[in-house]
Amino acid sequence: MLPKGGIPLTLYDLVAPGLDLRGEPRYRIAEIRAADPLGADAMLAALPAMNAAADVPALTVALRALVPDPDRVAALSVVDALAAMRDLGILLGSLKRHGTEPVPAVPEVLPVLEELGRRTDMVPRDTVHHYTTWNPLGARQRMYTGDRMEASLQDAVRMVFPSLVAALGTCAELARLEPYDPGFALCLDRTAQHVQAMVDSIDFTVANVSPVFFAQEMRSYFEEIDVAGHEYLGPAAAQVPLWLVDLTLWQCDRSNPKYDAFLRESVQYSLPSWRDHYARHQGGTSAVSKLSAAISWEAVDRLPQQLAASAVSLARVLRILKTFRARHMTIARKAYSEDVRLYDMGSGGAPIELLRSVLDLTRDNETLVRRSVERPNTP
């Protein structure tokens, strides 16, 4: 279903009002989008033209003009601080794209970035959430290029934010349950519904964003910048933390060292409550391991009905994750093929080979669960 403007109705349109009621300022999406604490609307409307001209002097002047007094930053609410980081951040990425490290070019921005990071309890630069979910729509939308495909790329990420919030809730509940509990399969079924939004998002991206456009136009805007001697990645889609779902389903005890290292680096770009979720569950027992242990104790041909239902539900959600990763892998191969790519590494800071590794891990766990119930007379 397409409303006026051609942007598909997503789960965000249905769920976002409920997010606002959770008491988490980072979920007050409409308020963050509406906020313009730096008075940046008019200046950022001209950003695509500055980038098209590679006008580094104009970009530098624009960033310097938007940098607020540190005392003013200290008085901002979390909502306004998130909006301020959003608007400074898109200028940071633009300068870096044209070969200029933004903090040395505008040194007065450093204490502001550090204070905004403290105020929001996030990294001291913009993330994928600033660039997509917290970005205004319509005439006020902040964009590097102004291209329709860039807008579609932003929409594709916006589509999944409420689904991820909901999936974290069901995964946290799942971690407290055992496969014999009736709620185990129910949690997995709800998680599957939420994760399906990722597949819808990747399909939307395939239909609306050319791999060549991403590789040769957008990728350059997501380079890391140096903030006080630490490099922070740009607002890459790889920061959308599907790995938080992996965590309780299989990753916490069935991963490999390369994926573990990637997650340890990626978690810093998440929201504070999402980082807490990671800290609570990284040393736990995964749903796959719980199910495998329970089934190993069953010597009979027919599994207990509840255990069989849990296995079917877990295989279903792993299959959806596998589908997403296979389609993502196809896009990445096109965007980073030798005749197209400008960079060897993905925008999330990892090589394309890691996508293959995570796809293989997901497939292996899905196969293990599926085969565990392939016994005579099992429903």
Explain this structure to me?
The protein is mostly helical and 379 residues long. 62% of the residues lie in helices and 2% in strands. It has 2 domains: 12-146, Methane Monooxygenase Hydroxylase, Chain G, domain 1, CATH 1.20.58.1320; 159-372, Methane Monooxygenase Hydroxylase, Chain G, domain 1 (Up-down Bundle), CATH 1.20.58. The chain is built from 20 helices and 2 strands. It has a two-stranded antiparallel ribbon with strand order 1-2. It starts with 10 loop residues before the first helix and ends in a 7-residue tail after the last helix.
Overall body shape: elongated
The gyration radius over C-alpha positions equals 22 Å
Q: How far is it from the N-terminal to the C-terminal residue, by CA?
A: 36 Å
Percentage beta strand:
under 5%
Can you tell me the number of structural domains?
Answer: 2
The CATH architecture of the largest domain would be Up-down Bundle
Helix content: 55-70%
| Structural class computed from helices and strand pairing | mainly alpha
Order of helices and strands: HHHHHHHHHHHHHHEEHHHHHH
Please give the CATH class of the largest domain: Mainly Alpha
* Biggest sheet architecture: 2 strands, antiparallel
List the total number of helices: 20
Q: Which sequence of strands runs across the widest sheet? A: 1-2
